[in-house]
Description:
Radius of gyration: 30 Å
Structural class: alpha/beta
Number of strands: 29
Amino acid sequence: DEEIRDPYKPKKETYISLSDYYSHNMEALYEILDSLSKSKKTEKQADLILAFLDYTNHSAKSNLPSDLAFSILKSEFLKNSSVSPARLNTLIEKGIFVSRDIEISRLANYDSLDVVDNIRLSEEQQIALNEIENGFLKYNTVLLHGVTGSGKTEIYIKMIEKVLAQGKQVLYLLPEIALTSQIVNRLRKYFGDKVGVYHSRFNEYERVEIWNRVLSHNSDDSSDNKYQLILGARSALLLPYRNLGLVIVDEEHDSSYKQIDPAPRYHARDCAVVLANIHHAHSLLGTATPSIETYYNTEIQKYGLVELMSRYADSTLPEIWLVNILESMKQKKMNGHFSHFLLEQIKNALDNKEQVILFQNRRGFSLRMLCNSCQEMPSCINCDVTLTYHKKSNLLKCHYCGYAIELPSECPVCHSKDIEMKGFGTEKIEESLEQLFPGTVVSRMDLDTTRSKSGYQRIISDFENHKTDILVGTQMVTKGLDFDRVSVVGILNADNLISYPDFRSFERAFQIMAQVSGRSGRKKIPGKVIIQSYHPEHPALKFVVKNDFKAMYESQILERKKFNYPPFCRLIKITFKNKQEELVNNAANVFAKMLRDAFPNQILGPEFPLVARIQNYYLKDVWIKIPKSDML
Length: 632
């Protein structure tokens, strides 16, 4: 027996207004006022009517529909006029006032902006726009490869403008909610209330409203509650589009587009290309650091390619310096986790009223607690990871399952008091900066500070309005954010990006460092980037310093071809998961043997992943490499 129920309930607010009889018959209203004023029992009711008339004359009614032009929100009237609810109900019973429940939207009302009619493209931008439009004559998908700060967003706006004029919808995908909160105001300057925002931080009721507004496009509904331009993270891909004309995937290289857990599991970039094809629309992929797979698709003529290699408004790419942490430590040129050179650049920027972004790809205060006597490190009881110290809550936390314990005062094994914290995260950097630069406003952007729906908006807005001097963050600060006064960017430890055991780690390390470097010097202020590393000779760092994507691509594509990795094959990962380790081992071994009989030389594993146990489930992976020539 199955039952489908609709849990959605529209949000309603109660408005009060004069009844039709009294609103259209002022003589009758004066008579009732005169009658009520003559008795001490009812004179308060007369005062209430006068207060209502005065309130309707002075209250703002711009946001109300025409049929509510002389209505007042009941809760607001009761609060601001010190009116008794009982007296108001009495006048409603007498038929002088009418109470109506009006359905309202749960979605935020943005401040009204003056819509800008047009934008001017530079000569390079106009050439790129023309090349994209010509590319769409031959390809369904075009890659716009533009360096950071080259003005890709303005080109997107021009293309959106053209598609909306045709009465079609546009989907604009971004990898992070942080980006949507910054760019929505830029788009609303050009497209007003046609812009809708959708991401996972909205609650269920808000999502229903957005869903209905997208669905109502091209319907007979004459209301203004329709969205033509949807701006959102990967889940915006799943909205009910009826007449899609263009799909834009900004920062197409970003790994955040891939949803691994929970279901549905999909890559939003690839799905966006398929969605555009279903609607006979075009898809535009934009980035400063294309993924190896996407750039390879341009080389085999599957996608078109347009390049924009100069920054907008004559601004120049930032200067990049490498700092050898090991050498700096030997020469006593380190202050905590900061080199003297980086601190000097930060001080100069602050003295010039400029801003700084520091990137550390670890949240928390310290990565682990270590006992110097027995080398014990407190670990999670549910996962095979050490606990990370968070100073604000004074807890050791697991970032996989949420398990947490209070910070022990001694080693739980040998009871030694000789314990110390190793490693550092964004929380420790924030604290250190406040001590090194007293009076400076330091803000932190990571998962801990952006859990609320408006967390991103608040942090980014404060930084945009120069209320914050230094922004410390994880990968969130690397992704397409546009600030005009950032002159210094610091990457505090580049090595934990490079040394990750994954065939894409080299590519991703280059992308992340190139992207975060691009946050500096975006306007007239020259930009400087300082990368701290124990291995400054690493090839990935040299490619970043030279800003040479082509050289990085050539080195990686040869390696991928030699060892048969994407884009030369398809990879399928099958994960076995159970609370019994022996059962997982046996099942994975049997399955891998069966696969090897069917796919000789194409099976990797079974192997435990980097974290072999999560939430008391043991994991074991089997990888299948399928050459593209074998795909049906």
